[in-house]
């Protein structure tokens, strides 16, 4: 059977499962809608959190990025996993004990202030919408590559599916769908990884094969890492495993980036909200462990995939004539994600350091003498002739390794599962921020259960429409704004949540001043460097990493201002003490 | 807060500080600050610093959370604040 038919089967089957689960777990009250009734077992919550967290970017793009970045890919690997340690030790148990529905709930109550609640909910909405736009685009791209539909049609199909199961089942529907989506995405990621590891090193475990010796070919018996280092240097790149060098990020920048991603992870509302759904504090601690375990399965496989893909790509494409280039190369050329410009006219593909030409490929529509698609871009001075989009590394992997059609289809279903699970988690944060935090807690405290539930569903619909709009008309700045999402998570939520638990003396004035200065600095820096073309002026730290500095600023300002103003009222100090003791968490209560 | 609950909280904070020190050591110290000297050491095909940055630190992170879970479950029982 063809790839196309297999893809219809795989995607149809998995979507059918998601919809069936959503129908089985439809809800009738706000507790079910916001926190899945608060009775999700830790193992299931760990699976759901892992799917929620791992987005289209983790599944599709991360291994490709690492493949091109070498050692410095560690910022994503450590940054996006290390945050769970902070989350598990410093936040999850206490927020669960506090036991409301959302992050702004905690901020508003702990700092006895509507202003703090509103700042928190604006951040939550902004972070989530930024993120979800990228997910919808990811859905569209996977659809268009594998099902041959237009990207926009793909986005619309994705919108319907998400709206159906998020609107119907709320958090409960999302939770159980995410469990199924985790299973789909991890199988889809592991099968090609294991097959490629077997093929290159003869070792079925990618995490070990990555450090093993090459099984066959002219490099047989050599360590993969060493071969990769040698090939990279021969072609003019830095050594794959070397840390800091010319053209790479500085140690300080890598440090700041890793910290910003870690703290940003711990401050992202769609991840934190998942710890409200378990029955008690002990379950919150345990489910954080399960979540990271399930995430680690993908995150330790990704660098192995990155190494194999780089080796495979260079071996099968570099210094090979176009006529002998493998079929995946020509398939992906059609999508515009791979291009070759025969600068020296020898008919051989030369892959070297540097850009092949300026910008992303603009095809003229004509074919060259060897059948390659001609590009109109202006060539650069570098000897490099090959353009490869980093995002294809995971998607093209099964083709590179000549795996059967059903595996390729499975990878498509996995990419969709990763994108849809994250999108639904984010949409719920937007819906709950508006219907619970803004409407019920600030505007109308008399709202009935029924009207709040209805508003929650309407808000999911509105958020889906906004996300879909940005998916179809991606603003040019989506990639830039993701930095902003993490920066905001790091510089706004994390410090005041941590201080809220660990420092009784933190008060309203401190929290508001801290959040505003942290966010203000981070936003200013990102806007200056990303949009206004200003050079990174703070010790050369890149805008993606500046959230780490914003976080420190928030901590300092909150502490200083709290010290200078009156301590929080006695009942708040009691609230903090009760949050520190696990007993009595009970159900997530709405007072 | 009753006296024994103060003790409970201090023990909790101490566990956290010890575990977060390990977290900092394997990621920021081994994976970033000392990556170059550690890369001189090889384990199989892996330079050690590179291994910590791309694999090792993640394994340690997972273990840390489960250790915290076990320590706290025991502490909760000892101070009778468990559920």
From TrEMBL, chain A:
Bilayer topology: Multi-pass membrane protein
Q: Which keywords accompany this UniProt record?
A: Membrane, Transmembrane, Transmembrane helix, Transport
Entry GO MF terms: transmembrane transporter activity
Please give the GO cellular component terms listed in this UniProt entry.
plasma membrane
One Pfam family this sequence matches: SSF
Membrane-spanning segments = 5-23, 43-68, 75-95, 115-134, 146-167, 179-198, 254-276, 288-309, 454-472, 478-503, 510-527, 547-566
Q: Which InterPro entries does the entry link to?
A: Na/Glc_symporter_sf, Na/solute_symporter, Na/solute_symporter_VC_2705, Sodium:Solute_Symporter
Gene3D superfamilies with a match to the protein in the record? Sodium/glucose cotransporter
Where it sits in the cell: the answer is: Membrane
Q: What is its main location?
A: membrane
What family does this belong to? Answer: Belongs to the sodium:solute symporter (SSF) (TC 2.A.21) family.
Q: What protein name applies here?
A: Cation acetate symporter
User: Which species is this record about?
Assistant: Oceanidesulfovibrio indonesiensis
Automatic annotation (TrEMBL), chain B:
Looking at the Swiss-Prot or TrEMBL record, what is one Pfam family this protein matches? Answer: DUF4212
Report TM segments.
12-35, 50-71
Q: What is this protein called?
A: DUF4212 domain-containing protein
Could you tell me the keywords of this UniProt record? Membrane, Transmembrane, Transmembrane helix
Query: Which part of the chain is the Sodium symporter small subunit domain?
Result: 7-82
- Write down the species: Oceanidesulfovibrio indonesiensis
At the top level, the lineage of the source is Bacteria
């Amino acid at each position: 059977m063809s790839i196309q038919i297999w893809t219809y089967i795989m995607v149809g089957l998995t979507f059918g499962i998601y919809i069936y689960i959503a129908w089985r777990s439809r809800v009738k009250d706000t507790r079910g809608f916001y926190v899945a009734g608060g009775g999700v077992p830790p193992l299931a919550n760990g699976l759901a959190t892992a799917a929620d967290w791992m987005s289209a970017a983790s599944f599709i793009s991360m291994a490709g990025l690492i493949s091109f970045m070498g050692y410095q890919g560690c910022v994503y690997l450590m940054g996006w996993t290390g945050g769970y340690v902070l989350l598990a030790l410093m936040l999850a148990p206490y927020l669960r004990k506090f036991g409301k529905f959302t992050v702004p709930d905690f901020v508003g109550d702990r700092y006895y202030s509507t202003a703090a609640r509103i700042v928190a909910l604006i951040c939550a909405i902004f972070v989530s919408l930024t993120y979800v736009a990228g997910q919808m685009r990811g859905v569209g791209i996977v659809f268009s590559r594998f099902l041959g539909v237009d990207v926009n049609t793909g986005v619309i199909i994705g919108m319907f599916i998400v709206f159906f199961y998020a609107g119907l089942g709320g958090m409960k529907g999302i939770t159980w769908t995410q469990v199924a989506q985790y299973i789909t995405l991890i199988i889809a990621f592991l099968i090609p990884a294991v097959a490629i590891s077997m093929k290159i090193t003869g070792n079925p475990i990618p995490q070990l094969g990555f450090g093993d010796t090459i099984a066959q070919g002219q490099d047989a018996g050599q360590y993969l890492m060493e071969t990769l280092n040698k090939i990279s240097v021969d072609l003019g790149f830095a050594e794959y495993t070397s840390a800091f060098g010319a053209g790479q990020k500085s140690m300080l920048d890598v440090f700041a980036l890793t910290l910003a991603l870690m703290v940003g992870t711990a401050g992202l509302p769609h991840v934190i909200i998942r710890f409200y759904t378990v029955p008690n504090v002990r379950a919150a601690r345990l489910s954080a462990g399960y979540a990271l375990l399930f995430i680690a399965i993908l995150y330790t496989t990704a660098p192995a995939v990155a190494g194999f893909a780089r080796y495979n790509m260079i071996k099968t494409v570099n210094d090979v004539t176009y006529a002998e280039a493998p079929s995946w190369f020509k398939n992906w050329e059609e999508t515009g994600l791979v291009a070759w410009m025969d600068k020296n006219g020898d008919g051989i593909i030369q892959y070297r350091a540097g850009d092949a030409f300026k910008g992303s490929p603009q095809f003229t529509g004509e074919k060259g003498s060897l059948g390659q698609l001609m590009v109109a871009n202006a060539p650069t001075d570098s000897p490099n002739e090959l353009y490869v989009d980093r995002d294809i590394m995971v998607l093209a992997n099964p083709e590179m390794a000549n795996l059967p059609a059903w595996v390729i289809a499975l990878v498509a279903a996995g990419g969709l599962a990763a994108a849809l699970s994250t999108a639904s988690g984010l949409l719920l944060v937007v819906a709950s921020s508006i219907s619970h935090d803004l409407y019920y807690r600030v505007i109308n405290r008399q709202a009935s259960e029924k009207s709040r539930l209805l508003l929650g569903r309407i808000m999911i619909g509105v958020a889906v429409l906004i996300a879909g709009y940005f998916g179809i008309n991606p603003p040019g700045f989506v990639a830039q704004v993701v930095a902003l999402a993490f920066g905001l998570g790091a510089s706004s939520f994390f410090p005041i949540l941590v201080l809220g638990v660990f420092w009784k003396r933190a008060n309203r004035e401190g929290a508001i001043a801290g959040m505003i200065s942290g966010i203000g600095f981070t936003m200013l820096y990102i806007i200056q460097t990303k949009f206004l073309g200003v050079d990174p002026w703070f010790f050369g730290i890149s805008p993606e990493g500046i959230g780490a500095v914003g976080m420190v600023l928030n901590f300092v300002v909150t502490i200083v201002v709290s010290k200078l103003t009156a301590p929080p009222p006695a009942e708040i100090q009691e609230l903090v003490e009760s949050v520190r003791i696990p007993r009595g968490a009970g159900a997530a209560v709405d007072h | 807060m009753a006296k024994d609950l103060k003790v409970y909280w201090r023990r909790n904070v101490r566990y956290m500080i010890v575990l977060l020190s390990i977290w900092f050591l394997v990621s920021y110290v081994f994976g970033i600050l000392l990556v170059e000297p550690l890369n001189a050491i090889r384990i199989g095909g892996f330079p050690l610093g590179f291994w910590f940055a791309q694999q090792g630190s993640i394994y340690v992170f997972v273990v840390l959370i489960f250790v915290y879970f076990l320590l706290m479950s025991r502490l909760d029982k000892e101070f009778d604040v468990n559920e």
